[in-house]
Design a protein that fits this description.
Layout lengths: L2 H9 L6 H12 L5 H14 L3 H12 L15 E5 L7 H11 L4 E5 L9 H5 L11 H11 L1 E5 L6 H12 L6 H13 L5 E8 L8 H17 L3 E8 L7 E2 L1 H12 L5 H17 L6 H13 L2 H12 L5 H4 L9 E6 L4 E6 L1 H11 L15 E4 L6 E2 L4 E7 L2 H14 E4 L9 E5 L1
Helix pairs in contact: 1-3, 2-4, 2-8, 4-9, 4-10, 5-11, 5-12, 5-14, 9-10, 12-13, 16-17
The chain binds uracil and calcium ion.
């Protein structure tokens, strides 16, 4: 087989066979195919697209390029959640304990934040001594004992995707449905949970900006998951403004604690109920989403979900006193109010730009080795559709650096678009796909 022939075949709009897809994935990963040929093929795929079988074959080839994580020694139907990435998305820290408190094993290998999007591992590390690097045995044992385990990826998962993604990034070939779906799903499917709920974000702070594109991406990912024999459902959700109120690592842990105690932001709690009830159905814990929702509300109201967070922290060596007394979590030296100079309604609050403000404050990373300020971030006091009077606090900036506060304050003031009430109120959930 020759790479030249595969490029020509795809260039002319033909369909690649399973063997041909395996050939270019294996040989590109091993360094036998040069970047210039792979770039040409990616562009041909980008322009002529892949059909469903090709997309599934590409996903399989990427999964097989590295290690997979066998979870069969965890008892029960194991569930996982994946978000395509957003701002202030504290969901995992709330959803995980809620689902586990319903006796369904929630197992997740999480990532770190990059750019304006946050990562669960960084948030967890704002709890002192919390250990995200678990051995495979610890990961499995904890899931068996307490139904929840969240760790970093230690195994060599989908090395092909790492190389492809880096090349796509510099050859303008990222925004193709098949390439995105196979990239995300290969990473998810390599970790062998039984059921997956995908939270596909759409809006200013998301990777996908249009609802139609997001729905198509969600459908494609659900098809791949199901085609691979795993129960997969997706929800397309709003990321036009940040989720919840807190953006920043320790701030989001505090928000998770409050939400698990029944005292969190409405949108964040609602999203956890929607995603969680789907997981409980997939895990056969309940037969309808309504029943799932009621059970989730029950474990929050009874304190079981909160106790599950404490258990998670204890089992991963974190300091539980900082969960019991959140003021012991990293706290910023300065908390500055950002006040409104207008009266009206919040019309928009661009999530990506708010994420960038948090990044300036040190809550996020510019590059993989930038240092984080775990205490830094933003707490929103007003969100889209809220009524605002002159002098009302729009948001609080948490920072250890007054220079950075100045920059963030100016930007935040500009990001709050205040005017007439929006004719249509915001939506949290756009579409559910199963
Ligand atoms: N996220 C991924 O992991 N892969 C893509 O291709 C796009 C977003
Ligand atoms: Ca949040």
């Amino acid at each position: 087989m020759r790479m030249y022939d595969l490029i020509k075949k795809k260039r002319d709009g033909n369909i690649l066979s399973t063997e041909e897809i395996n050939f270019f994935v294996d040989n590109y990963t091993n360094g036998n195919i040069p970047d210039y040929q792979m770039s040409a093929l990616l562009m041909a795929i980008f322009l002529n697209k892949m059909d469903k079988k090709e997309t599934l074959d590409l996903t399989s080839a990427m999964i097989n390029s590295g290690d997979t994580v066998d979870l069969s020694s965890i008892k029960g139907i194991k569930v996982d959640k994946h978000s395509t990435g957003g701002v202030g998305d504290t969901t995992t820290l709330i959803l995980g304990p809620m689902v586990a408190a319903c006796d369904v094993p929630f197992v997740k290998m999480s990532g770190r934040g990059l750019g304006h999007t946050g990562g669960t591992l960084d948030k967890l590390e704002s709890i002192s001594n919390f250990r995200v690097a678990l051995s495979k045995e610890e990961f499995i044992n904890n899931a068996n004992k307490i139904n929840i385990s969240i760790c970093s990826q230690t195994a060599n998962i989908t090395p092909a995707d790492k190389k492809f993604y880096a090349l796509r990034d510099v050859t303008a070939t990222v925004e193709n449905l098949s390439l995105i779906a196979s990239s995300i799903m290969s990473k998810k499917l390599a970790i062998k949970s039984d059921a997956i709920v995908l939270d596909v974000k759409v809006g200013s702070g998301a990777f996908m900006k249009s609802i139609d594109d997001s729905i198509n991406l969600a459908k494609e990912m659900v098809e791949i998951g199901c085609g691979y024999g795993r129960e997969t459902v997706a929800v397309v959700t709003n990321m036009d403004e940040p989720l919840g109120n807190a953006i920043g690592n320790a701030l989001e842990v505090k928000e998770a604690i409050a939400t698990l105690k029944g005292d969190g932001p409405e949108d964040l709690y609602e999203l956890c109920l929607v995603l969680g009830s789907k997981l409980l159905v997939l895990a056969k814990r309940v037969s309808t989403e309504k029943e799932g929702r009621n059970l989730l509300i029950e474990v929050v109201n009874s304190g079981k979900a909160y106790s599950k967070l404490i258990e998670l922290v204890k089992y991963q060596d974190g300091d539980i006193s900082s969960i019991e007394n959140p003021h012991l979590l990293p706290t910023a030296k300065y908390i500055i109010e950002v006040k409104s100079s207008k009266e009206g309604y919040v019309k928009a609050l661009n999530a990506e730009e708010v994420g960038k403000c948090a990044l300036i404050l040190g809550a996020g990373r510019e590059t993989l080795d930038s240092e984080l300020d775990l205490a830094a971030g933003i707490v929103l006091n007003k969100k889209v559709d809220d009524k605002v009077f002159m002098g009302d606090v729009l948001a609080y900036i948490h920072s250890n650096d007054l220079e950075k506060v100045k920059i963030a304050e100016e930007r935040l003031k500009e990001l709050y678009i205040i005017g007439e009430k929006n004719p249509i109120s915001k939506k949290l959930i756009y579409e559910e796909i199963s």
